[in-house]
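Researcher: Sequence of Glycosyl hydrolase family 38 C-terminal domain-containing protein follows. Predict its structure.
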Amino acid sequence: SHDSLPERTVIQLDSSPRFVVLFNPLEQERLSVVSVLVNSPQVHVLSEEGQPLSVQISAHWSSATDMVPDVYQVSIPIRLPALGLGVLQLQQGLDGPYTLPSSVRIYPNGLKPSISRHTVFPVRIMDSSTSDFAISNHYMQVWFSGRTGLLKSIRRVDEEQEQQVDMRFLIYGTRMSKDKSGAYLFLPDGKAKPYVPKKPPVLRVTEGPFFSEVVAYYEHFHQVVRLYNLPGVEGLSLDMSFLVDIRDYVNKELALRIHTDIDSQATFFTDLNGFQVQPRRYLKKLPLQANFYPMPVMAYIQDTQKRLTLHTAQALGVSSLSDGQLEVILDRRLMQDDNRGLGQGLKDNKITCNRFRLLLERRTMGSEVQDDHSTSYPSLLSHLTSMYLNTPLLALPVATRQLPGPALRSFHPLASTLPCDFHLVNLRTLSAEDNMPSADAALILHRKGFDCGLEAKNLGFNCTTSQGKVSLGSLFYHLDVGFLQPTSLTLLYPLASPSNSTDIYLDPMEIATFRLRLG
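Model: Prediction complete. Tokens:
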């Protein structure tokens, strides 16, 4: 239905190749893992040129212990050009050296589930114990509780000391007095209480060459924490998703709290609609609800050595009620109207998926934290991590019955990627006065401001910075810029006469609009 979560398409393989077109919405080249579902574990994946690609084969699960029969997940690391299209060929064939299966461990935690066994993916049933376990890649080792399956700590490979990152779930109630929480008001009945499940969670750990993940099945949510084993942006942060279902709650709100040993000194940082970041202070004299702020894109806490950033793919409420903590409200179910105009409570809850990226960064030696400034800035890595989260790769399976025509080819619209700190807000054809497309186009660019005090060595970026300078004349592949004219943001007023020069400059935090003609 219109309000249910999307379902992924299963690609039916046979002897003839099936094609998948991949689109990169980013203005920078990216290396990412793309996952598709197929009906056979015996699959060969070829590039556009016919070269075999290494893939990770995993089971597709319908519950903590049940595999979906005849459905398998194929994960392929692929490098795509900026704003470009790539083509993959998939066909059925015998297993080869490029098909790498995942290993699966299940911690039943005292339960005796019926595990569906499979010859392709041997499943190991582990004795449930309280001992912690870890997954790792080239950059970090991530530890989880063997009892709860929740995150406990992160240790970077170049450091001996672990960073505490203790994850917990909490429940807020609402007041017993006349005014209660509703769609607009958050009026809790005091501090949050720990979430106590009726039965212990079943944990599933999947490990493979390109990603490892830990899945914890609780009654009201399923947690997936994935660590990519790739160089660059994908491998430097934790990919987290929470499938939340609180439809049986009455006047309760589910929150996620991350507790660290970062000395944040009652200060945390939230963004304003993704454009700038402001410091927020926890004030004890204010009621608890007055210390929550909107988090459209990210929130972070920091001290003189570390910064922990929580990137989000959906706007949520965030706070830091104690030093070293970040707290996010995941979902709310409230039974009454709060007399603010809606006329009803929040009782139409659906199963929702909340997606995050957790990024731990280290400050460079000699860089100071400017606590007295009214604004703060994410690092360049943090900006790119947010873009990776909010603009994922799109995998488009091609219909089995292709119309006769030219063969599918990759597409490279840009001759070179934009600098790391530039974002292409829009590039569109302008309409003429008769409502027909004109020969001119509108180009809107945003240059992001970033904090240079966080470590940026050997991060594997696929782009560089250029001190705010961009040459639009050499940006587009096989297209010349006929003329370029800076205009107001809304394109209503020219700011200068058209020029043959295609070199532009933007200050940090600025948005600029140009009228240009490509040919």
